[in-house]
Amino acid sequence: MASAYGASMSTGAARLFAGAMRAPPSRLSWSASMCPIGRWLDRPAVLAPMSAQQPAQLLSVRSAWTRRSAAEKKAQSQKNQAKKSWGQRTEKYLKPFMMDVFISNRYIHAKIVHRVTSRVVAVATTNAKDLRNSLQSLCDYNACRVVGQLLAERAKEADIYAVVFELRAGEKYDGKLAEVVDTFAKNGISLI
C-alpha cells in the first residue's frame, strides 16, 4: 500500500490516507459519515498532534470536539455588550420622573413613575371608582382633560414640578394623548 502512494509515506500514514478515501456510508447521518478515529490511528480514540501528513478530514473531526465552556461564552457575551454612554447612564438621575399615558378603547390611564426606582408616584385613571361614576364617558376628550388635571394635582401633592414625557415607538402626539398631556402641562407642571 505504501508503494501505491509513494515511497516517502510510512505504512501508518498510508493506512490513514486510505481510510480517509473509503466509500460513502450507506446511511445518511452525521456519525455514519465520519470515519472512526480509532480505526485511523490503529489505537483507541485519542487525538494525536496534527502533522503535515494527515488529511484535511481529520481537521473537521477535531473541530467537532472543541466546544467553549459556559464561562467562556459568558465572558464573550459580556465583552460584546455595548457600554452605555455617560449621558445614557446619568439622564435618569438628572430627570427622575417620567409620565406614562395609556389610552385603551374603554379607559384612560396616566401615571408618573420614578425612573431610578420604578416606583409609581402619582396615578389617575378613568377606571377608578371616583371617576367611573362621575363621568358620562370613560374615553372621550372630556375624560382626557379630567385625567390630566387630576394627575397634575396628585403630582403637586408629591412635590413633583418637572416631568419627562417621551412618546412610545410608533405613537403620534395628537388626539386624546395630546389632550391629556396638554391639560397636565397647563396645570403647573413643566414637561422636559
UniProtKB/TrEMBL annotation:
Highest taxon, organism lineage: Eukaryota
A GO term for molecular function: mRNA binding
**Xref: InterPro entries:** Ribosomal_L18, Ribosomal_uL18_bac/plant/anim
The Gene Ontology biological process terms listed for this entry are: translation
GO terms for cellular component:
ribonucleoprotein complex; ribosome
Q: Which UniProt keywords apply?
A: Ribonucleoprotein, Ribosomal protein
The record's CDD domains line, in alphabetical order, gives:
Ribosomal_L18_L5e
Please give the family membership noted in the entry.
Belongs to the universal ribosomal protein uL18 family.
- Its recorded name reads Uncharacterized protein
Q: Identify the species of origin.
A: Chara braunii
